[in-house]
C-alpha cells in the first residue's frame, strides 16, 4: 500500500503514471457548482501529453491513479469533503477556465464513495 503524503509535499514530487508519462501537481482548487455541489479540481502538468497519442484505457489508468493518490489526499485535507474530484491533465500549465490553444488537456470526473474514486462521465 502506498503511503500518503500531504498535497503540499506532492507539489515537490513527480509521479510516474501507468502511461509512462511523468506528472507534477500544479494546484488544487475547490469550485462551488451552480447545483450546490463542491468540486475539487486537481490540476496536473504532464508535459509529455503534448502531441502524444494516449488510448482511452491508458488515460483512464492515469487519471484513476491521480485521483487515488493526490486527489484523495487533497480531499482529506480539505475543510469539507468535495462531492466530486475533477482531474485536469495539461501538457503545460494554463489559467483555469481560459482558452489554451496548442495545450493538450484531458479531464476526468470522480465521485468519492467509501474512500474510493468512482469514475463518472461528465
Number of strands: 6
Which regions have little confidence, pLDDT < 50, spanning 5+ residues? 1-6
> What level of helicity do the residues show?
10-25%
Q: Overall mean pLDDT score?
A: 89
What gyration radius follows from the Cα positions, in whole Å?
14 Å
Largest sheet entry: 6 strands, mixed
End-to-end separation in angstroms reads 30 Å
Counted by DSSP, the helix tally is 2
Strand order of the largest sheet: 1-2-3-4-5-6
Strand content: 35-45%
Instruction: Give the topology string: H per helix, E per strand.
Output: HEEEHEEE
The chain-level structural class is: alpha+beta
Molecular shape: globular
Written overview of the protein:
There is one protein chain. Helix content is 21%, strand content 35%. With 122 residues, it is an alpha+beta fold. The protein has a 6-stranded mixed sheet, covered by helices on one side. A hairpin with a 5-residue loop joins β2 and β3. It is globular and about 35 Å long.
Protein traits:
6 strands; alpha+beta; globular; 122 residues; single chain
Write a short abstract of this structure.
The protein has 122 residues and is of the alpha+beta class. The chain has helices spanning 7-10, 56-77; strands spanning 14-16, 22-32, 38-45, 84-90, 105-113, 116-120. The chain has a 6-stranded mixed β-sheet, with helices on one face.
Amino acid at each position: 500500500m502506498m503511503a500518503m503524503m500531504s498535497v503540499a509535499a506532492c507539489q515537490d514530487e513527480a509521479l510516474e503514471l501507468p502511461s509512462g508519462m511523468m506528472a507534477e501537481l500544479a494546484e488544487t482548487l475547490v469550485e462551488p457548482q451552480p447545483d450546490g455541489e463542491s468540486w475539487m479540481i486537481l490540476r496536473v502538468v504532464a508535459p509529455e501529453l503534448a502531441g502524444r497519442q494516449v488510448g482511452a484505457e491508458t488515460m483512464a489508468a492515469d487519471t484513476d491513479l491521480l485521483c487515488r493518490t493526490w486527489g484523495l489526499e487533497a480531499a482529506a485535507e480539505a475543510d469539507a469533503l468535495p462531492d466530486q474530484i475533477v482531474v485536469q491533465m495539461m501538457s503545460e500549465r494554463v489559467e483555469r477556465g481560459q482558452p489554451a490553444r496548442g495545450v493538450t488537456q484531458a479531464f476526468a470526473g470522480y465521485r468519492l464513495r467509501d474512500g474510493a474514486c468512482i469514475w463518472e462521465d461528465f
